[in-house]
User: Which sequence fits this backbone?
């Protein structure tokens, strides 16, 4: 006794049910697919396209019309393109800032963790993360306003309140200025992660070494720091990777100058591409940069491993 | 009649107390000094934005002044600033929704199912963070021009998604790992489908993680300069670029520059303080909360 309308709704039902089953049975695939798609696009594509651009004379969408020139752009990059210089500058900034931020971040985290009063503790904790809220453009603004040799408050204070002569931060020691600004901006990152790491050190471990009569520095060197090794490793690795991304603050502060004093690799690539119109040279430097950063990160991962960091 | 074995003990205890007090004093001196280092530039920027026009950069500085909102009013009245601000809000907001829709389900699968070569997949995802944006932006610039995505909001949304996807997957995987699997199994026994188990049981439990990772993604996209600089020219200009346009021009309006920069910092600062409890997990891709 099935009326047509009933049959229709039944097939619709079973159709819907089939879709639902398909959805539930293959759930992991549906859930993973978009992520994999986006990841493929953003990881494989730019590298491959950079490589292609670095080997052809003029950028063209037509693969068959491309005029391959071999390693010519690489040669140009390292002879007249300033690539070698910009790599040295970048490594200097990355290494100095990483060292400063790690030491400062750990020191501050240890000091705050030892504060007895809970309210003071959370006051410091919240206050110390604030510089991270400062975007690169705003940081460049702060640097330009406070360090300017005509209107800057810091040179003014140094000149009038101390017997010292103020250096021209942006003209005479621009690289040091960049390093210090980055340290101000990103020490909070190290601080907050080390602080979380320190609070996860089991009390019993620390207590045991205290009972043994170990002095404070020994407790750190032999108990706390070894326990925190994975945390220190992750924080340093991520900061290392991010330091290689530095662009905005230097672009806003000095645009790579004066001369090429602060010409990071990222600034150099930008100038080659968008000011000199040297797409091939820019792509060649980008490829060397990519290979270097990924190799470095993988060496660190392989050397220290993620053991103890994830299951 | 001094008892020789009590006397040294007492003085030692006294010494210890003094020493502890000394440690406390030194500790707070250092911490207050760093507080000053943190606060002074922020104070200086904010105070500069509140100074009346013409006095913003006078030396010796006006340590005491009557604050005025002149610069901010100028800023809000500038239609370019309002457009850029709205642009950023829209593009960044949509990108955060998208990145969560793509990243959270994938993280759930990585946490719950046996994925072949799971470790390699996770390292691959992390590796997208290793690509310096300047190397990525160059191919996208040429492709975007070919596909008519140059200076479009859709293009910028895609770039913002690419910045944050790895972060969302890693952090959310760590969060899902911390939610007991028995929860969904119980729901399954009660007749819920896999998807219902995910939507009605697991997602609500992971809410704090989703909330904080959303805010951190918002911040990373919000402060991004390079993509805006290269991939937009007029229509899709983000607010970072607008702030930047004050710098480098021949006559810099310091007060306006300070006001725009402060306006960019304030919302992020509020966000950061709101999620400061989960900040470490978010910034370190979730690996720190493992115990």
Assistant:
């Amino acid at each position: 006794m099935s009326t047509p309308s009933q049959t229709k709704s039944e097939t619709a039902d079973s159709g819907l049910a089939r879709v639902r089953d398909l959805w539930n049975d293959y759930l992991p695939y549906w859930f993973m697919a978009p992520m994999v798609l986006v990841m493929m696009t953003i990881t494989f594509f730019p590298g491959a396209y950079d490589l292609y651009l670095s080997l052809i004379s003029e950028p063209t969408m037509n693969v068959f019309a491309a005029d391959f020139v071999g390693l010519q752009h690489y040669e140009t990059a390292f002879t007249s393109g300033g690539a070698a210089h910009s790599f040295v500058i970048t490594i200097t900034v990355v290494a100095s800032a990483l060292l400063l931020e790690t030491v400062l971040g750990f020191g501050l985290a240890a000091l705050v963790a030892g504060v007895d009063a809970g309210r003071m503790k959370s006051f410091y904790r919240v206050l110390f993360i604030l510089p991270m809220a400062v975007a690169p453009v705003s940081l460049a603004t702060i640097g330009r306003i406070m360090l300017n040799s005509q209107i800057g408050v810091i040179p003014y204070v140094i000149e009038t309140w101390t017997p010292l002569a103020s250096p021209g931060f942006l003209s005479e020691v621009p690289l040091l200025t960049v390093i210090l600004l980055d340290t101000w901006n990103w020490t909070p990152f190290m601080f907050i992660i080390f602080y979380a790491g320190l609070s996860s050190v089991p009390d019993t471990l620390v207590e045991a070494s205290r009972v043994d009569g170990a002095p404070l520095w020994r407790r750190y060197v032999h108990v706390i720091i070894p326990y925190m090794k994975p945390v220190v490793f992750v924080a340093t690795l991520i900061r290392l990777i991010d330091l290689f991304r530095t662009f905005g603050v230097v672009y806003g502060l000095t645009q790579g100058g004066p001369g090429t004093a602060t010409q990071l690799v990222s600034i150099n690539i930008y100038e080659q591409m968008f000011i000199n119109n040297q797409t091939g040279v820019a792509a060649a430097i980008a490829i060397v940069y990519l290979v270097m950063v990924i190799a470095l990160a993988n060496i660190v991962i392989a050397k220290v491993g993620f053991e103890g960091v994830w299951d | 009649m001094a008892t020789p074995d009590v006397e040294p003990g007492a003085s030692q205890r006294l010494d210890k107390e003094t020493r502890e007090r000394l440690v406390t004093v030194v500790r707070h001196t250092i911490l207050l000094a760093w507080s000053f280092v943190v606060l002074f530039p922020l104070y200086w920027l904010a105070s500069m934005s509140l100074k009346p026009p013409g006095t913003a950069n006078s030396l010796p500085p006006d340590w005491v002044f009557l604050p005025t909102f002149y610069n901010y009013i100028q800023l809000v009245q500038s239609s370019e600033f309002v457009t850029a601000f709205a642009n950023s809000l829209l593009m960044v907001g949509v990108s955060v929704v998208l990145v969560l829709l793509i990243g959270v389900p994938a993280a759930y699968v990585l946490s719950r199912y046996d994925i072949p070569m799971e470790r390699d997949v996770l390292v691959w995802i992390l590796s997208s963070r290793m690509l310096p944006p300047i190397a990525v932006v160059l191919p996208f610039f040429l492709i975007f021009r070919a596909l008519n995505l140059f200076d479009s909001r859709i293009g910028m949304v895609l770039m913002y998604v690419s910045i944050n996807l790895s972060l969302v997957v890693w952090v959310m995987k760590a969060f899902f790992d911390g939610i007991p699997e028995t929860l969904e199994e119980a729901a399954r026994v009660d007749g819920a489908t896999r998807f219902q188990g995910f939507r009605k049981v697991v997602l609500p439990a992971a809410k704090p993680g989703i909330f904080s990772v959303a805010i951190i993604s918002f911040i990373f996209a919000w402060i991004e300069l390079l993509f805006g600089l290269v991939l937009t020219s007029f229509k899709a200009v983000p607010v970072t670029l607008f702030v930047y346009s004050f710098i480098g021009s021949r006559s810099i309006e310091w007060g306006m520059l300070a006001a725009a920069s402060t306006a960019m910092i304030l919302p992020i600062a509020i966000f950061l303080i709101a999620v400061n409890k989960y900040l470490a997990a978010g910034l370190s891709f979730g690996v720190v909360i493992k115990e």
About this structure: Confidence is low (pLDDT under 50) at residues 1-9 of chain B.
